[in-house]
Specification:
The protein is α/β, with parallel strands linked by helices. The chain has 14 helices and 13 strands. It is elongated and about 65 Å long. The protein starts with a helix and ends with a helix.
């Protein structure tokens, strides 16, 4: 990979218009914001953010004090010509080279504006939407036909969905959302502060999982059953489940039935996953509609030992069994219990796996590496 100096010197005049809409979920919005903020830190790259909402366009650029974001009541379904006109105005005034959309609604308008203004477009799908309206389905179909010249995805499961919709794309690239390196899990001050926020004792051994509670018979059920035998010898064990969803009621009843209420904490949803991870000692990777890889990478950046299932395609190629994490078979509660027992009773193993996990993130998944990958995407669509 070329160094920053080489890449920056090749992109002195590159101007990117990032286009979003206010229908983005919190994970996608956070990833988009972080991408733009980090991109603005590199010489020669001039990003501008335009967010659509309620038929209007709000624009902010790197010359402003940060990138102001707005949240409006409705996704933009009207004022079609006005939005296209305003996007065209921004393209002209900013001398935009590439329009980069970050959700399907933005992708629809970016594709139309790109055609009208002869500007190449890039679409990034940061995650899968849990549900979509008829209008948004029509937009997704329209975008797949007009199609951005390059479609970027952030995980294998998103890539599969994109492959089904965007088979006509000239180029599909998998670029995970970058990660801001967190403090090491060995930092007791930050860990105890995060534990206090969750009302977990300082001396608790915290196993954490982050994701949607979508299936009553999935990994979360196996995880709850797997900690049961561990509580006999580890009274300070806590399983913290961060998230929510339709299976929560079932999981809560399972906890009651197994008499594990004092050991399991349902922490609810949060937009501050990195802060919550500071309370964890061990992390279990849970499939979550394209957000699993980002959550797992954040855990790895905090030097947490990661446990995952062999069938989790979202983190394929990231976790090596025994190298930077531990892998168990899908649905194998006994194997999961044994792996948890190992990391809890073998602190040297846990530390070794966590340190190796952080090194993977440092080498492959920081926003710096992601920035350089997107520069190559931009150059590719400009060349074509």
């Amino acid at each position: 990979m070329s160094g920053p100096t080489d890449l920056e010197s090749q992109s002195q005049d590159m101007r990117i218009l990032h286009l979003t809409s206010d229908i983005q979920n919190s994970a996608s919005a956070s990833a988009t914001g972080q991408m733009i903020m980090h991109q603005a830190n590199y010489q020669g790259v001039s990003p501008t953010l335009a967010e659509m909402g309620h038929g209007a366009l709000r624009v902010s650029s790197s010359g402003d004090s940060g990138f102001a974001r707005i949240s409006l009541d409705k996704p933009c379904t009207g004022s079609f010509r006005r939005l296209l006109r305003d996007i065209g105005t921004v393209v002209s005034r900013k001398n935009v080279d590439v329009i980069h959309a970050h959700d399907i609604t933005a992708g629809f308008y970016a594709s139309m504006a790109g055609i009208r203004n002869s500007i190449p477009t890039v679409l990034t799908r940061h995650a899968l939407e849990p549900s979509e309206s008829i209008l948004r389905r029509i937009m997704r179909m329209a975008v797949s036909q007009m199609c951005a010249r390059s479609v970027c995805t952030t995980s294998q499961i998103v890539a599969q969905a994109v492959g089904e919709d965007f088979s006509s794309a000239k180029k599909t690239v998998l670029i995970p959302d970058g990660v801001v390196l967190g403090g090491h899990s060995h930092d007791s001050q930050h860990r105890n502060k995060a534990k206090a926020a969750l009302r977990v004792p300082d001396d608790a051994l915290v196993i954490m999982a982050v994701g949607g509670f979508n299936s009553p018979d999935g990994l979360l059920e196996s995880l709850i059953r797997a900690i049961s035998p561990l509580t006999a010898n580890h009274k300070n064990l806590k399983l913290v489940l961060v998230g929510d969803g339709p299976a929560r009621s079932y999981l809560e009843k399972l906890v009651d039935a197994l008499v594990l209420k004092k050991y399991v904490v349902f922490a609810g949803e949060t937009d501050e996953v990195k802060n919550v991870l500071s309370a964890a000692d061990y992390f279990v990777s849970v499939p979550d509609r394209g957000c699993c890889l980002k959550n797992t990478l954040m855990a790895m950046s905090c030097s947490l030992p990661v446990i995952c299932c062999s069938g989790n395609r979202e983190i394929s190629g990231v976790i090596g069994d025994g190298d930077n994490g531990l892998v168990v078979g899908d649905g194998d509660v006994d194997a999961l219990a044994e792996v948890l027992r190992r990391v809890v009773t073998e602190p040297r193993l846990a530390t070794s796996l966590g340190d190796a996990a952080r090194q993977v993130v440092e080498k492959r998944f920081t926003w710096e590496q992601v920035h350089f990958q997107y520069l190559e995407v931009y150059r590719g669509v400009l060349r074509s």
